[in-house]
Design a protein that fits this description.
Number of domains: 1
CATH topology: 2,3-Dihydroxybiphenyl 1,2-Dioxygenase, domain 1
Largest sheet: 5 strands, mixed
Distance between the termini: 29 Å
CATH class: Alpha Beta
CATH superfamily: 2,3-Dihydroxybiphenyl 1,2-Dioxygenase, domain 1
Strand content: 35-45%
Number of strands: 9
Helix content: 10-25%
């Protein structure tokens, strides 16, 4: 038996602004954008073909609206692995991605925390 995490749901305010941010700022690929109803879509973006992808789910109702941008209570929510930290960091800065710190070089690798368009915290991470 083989198992893996395929999708991680990320609650967003708007499908189109989230698609634009993830594809333009982070260079993700739009994998799927399927209309399910008049208000719901199945939207999946991915940094690469393999590994977990993000399901961008538009917030529905007050409880979900409160979770947009703070789905983990202020902790780093997601980890974007790279094999070229310096190049990706520079590209992301040029694209206007907001980093919350300068790059750090830890025992496990190079890392810097950034925020997505809603304020969710991410690590850009190159493991040693």
């Amino acid at each position: 038996m083989s198992r893996s995490i395929g999708l991680i749901t990320l609650i967003v305010n708007d499908y189109d602004e989230a698609i634009a941010w993830y594809t333009n700022k982070l260079g993700f690929t739009l994998v799927t954008d399927t209309k399910l109803s008049e208000i719901k879509r199945w939207v999946v973006v991915s940094p690469e073909r393999d590994g977990a992808k993000l399901l961008l789910a538009k917030a529905d109702g007050p409880q979900q609206m409160k979770a947009v941008g703070d789905q983990t209570g202020g902790r780093v929510a997601l980890f974007l692995y790279t094999d070229d930290f310096s190049a990706d960091h520079a590209k992301m800065l040029k694209a206007g991605v907001r980093f919350l710190e300068d790059p750090r070089h830890e025992a496990y690798g190079s890392v810097a925390v950034f925020e997505d368009l809603y304020g969710n915290k991410w690590d850009l991470l190159q493991l040693k």
